[in-house]
Design goal:
This protein is an alpha+beta fold. It has 3 helices and 7 strands. Helix 2 (79-91) crosses helix 3 (127-146). 8% of the residues are buried.
Length: 147
């Protein structure tokens, strides 16, 4: 169905267990519509009221999730470095600082991302935490060398 008020095409499908799902596609992104199988049995249903508050919240939530996911991707780093980032981030909140990995803003791992390139920003208070991060780096290195 097409909803001109929100400029969207709404597609409904039914799964094998009879659960309905909907896809909402902005008309601005539709270039062409082509029926692939003319034998499909479908009916056009009228559009019921859409709760705009719920729709906006889902959009906000999806946008926030996409942003959060995108900032965890390093720019210009190797696959090994990205996999190490994910390993560190699994245990401690981490972020990219250029091509360096910052763990809880207290530990920095510089390229080429070995234990010798890992150090605490304030050495006196983070030795235990540094040792934990070093163990994760060593474990990641051992796992990737086995494969």
């Amino acid at each position: 169905a097409v909803d001109r008020t929100i400029n969207c095409v709404i597609l409904q499908s039914k799964s094998a267990d009879n659960k309905l799902s909907f896809k909402i596609i902005c008309c601005d992104y539709v270039r062409n519509i082509e029926v692939a199988d003319k034998k499909l049995d479908f009916e056009l249903l009228p559009i019921t009221n859409i709760n705009e508050t719920v729709m906006r919240e889902r959009e906000r939530s999806a946008t926030e999730a996409a942003r959060t996911s995108a900032i965890k991707i390093g720019v210009g780093v190797s696959k090994w470095a990205q996999d190490l980032f994910y390993a560190l981030d699994r245990y401690y909140p981490s972020r990219w600082d250029g091509d360096s990995i910052m763990v809880l803003d207290e530990i920095k791992v510089d390229p080429p991302y070995g234990v010798e390139n890992c150090y605490a920003i304030q050495t006196s208070r983070n030795n235990h935490f540094l040792n934990q991060v070093l163990k994760i780096i060593e474990g990641h290195k051992k796992r990737t060398q086995r494969n």
